[in-house]
Amino acid sequence: MSEQNQTLFERFGKAFPAGTLLFKEGELGKEMFVVQSGKVRISKTVRDVEKTLTELGAGEFFGEMSILNDKPRSANATTIEDSKLLVIDPKTFEAMVRGNAEIAIRIIKMLSKRLDEADKQIENLLLKDHNSRVVHFLAHASKTGKQMPGGWLVSMTPVDIAGKVGLEVAKVDEVLQKLVRAKLATLESGGIVVGDANKLREFLEFLEMKEKFGDI
Ligand code: CMP
Predict the structure, then answer these.
(1) How far from the centroid of its chain's Cα atoms is residue 157's Cα?
(2) Which residues' Cβ are closer than 6 Å to ligand 1?
(3) What number does the ligand 1 atom closest to the CA of 121 have?
(4) Which CATH topology does 3-125 take?
């Protein structure tokens, strides 16, 4: 931990074991959190099923919406690893932003990244057929994936993908098998390796044509 982080942790830091429910959707929010170490899942409960919106790691923040908009929590937050978090009240948050333009810029960047991801998710959910949803998701996720010898690694399980694209796991598995047969992806222990995202996009265009004109 750097000296600056050490002092911040002394003032605002708290350690939470894995599995701690930090807050629930609908609760009143009185603080925001910055992840110093560990991992936090942001989720929503839709018809009794918990859906992951995102997982946040070191340097990322959450819980700012309630204090900025004065509204109840828009999602649940749970630690999924032992985590060290800065817990910041609205007054300190405002003072930090006013006193440091760099913090404000980081927040704006993070919020626009989140909006971009939400837009992509909306686009995905508007696709009608399940093949297109999985292919569209992988084409987008592989852009930020880790480069591997065979392509780009999307470090997610079929269960994670199913939660993101609103499909049953069996449907996601079915599409992944098709992609493997078409040599567009391989399944590895760490996730799904996409060989060539452009080919995946071409396949998506083909699926779109099929949706438009049907099987002739
Ligand atoms: P808040 O509404 O206070 O509590 C839930 C938090 O989850 C919210 O603030 C954001 O920080 C975070 N959050 C909500 N929606 C998303 C999303 N789609 N992606 C990432 N983080 C989110």
Answers:
(1) 13
(2) 29, 42, 53-54, 62-66, 73-75, 77, 114, 118
(3) 18
(4) Jelly Rolls (2.60.120)
Q: Whose CA is nearest to atom 12 of ligand 1?
A: 62
Q: Which CATH architecture has domain 130-213?
A: Orthogonal Bundle (1.10)
Tokens for 153? 């690694």
Q: Which of 33, 45, 89, 114 to mutate to test the pocket of ligand 1 (most atoms within 8 A of CB)?
A: 114
Q: Which two tokens stand for residue 58?
A: 């070191």
Q: Provide the residue ranges of all domains of the chain, joining segments of one domain with +.
A: 3-125, 130-213
Q: Which atom of ligand 1 is nearest to the CA of 76?
A: 5
Residues 82 and 6: beta-carbon distance below 8 Å: no
Query: What is the mean pLDDT of the segment spanning 29-58?
Result: 91
Q: State how far the Cα of 160 lies from the Cα of 192, in Å rounded to an integer.
A: 12
Q: What is the pLDDT of residues 78-132, one digit of tens each?
A: 999 999 999 999 999 999 889 999 989 999 999 999 999 889 989 998 888 889 9
- pTM: predicted TM-score of the whole model, two decimal places: 0.78
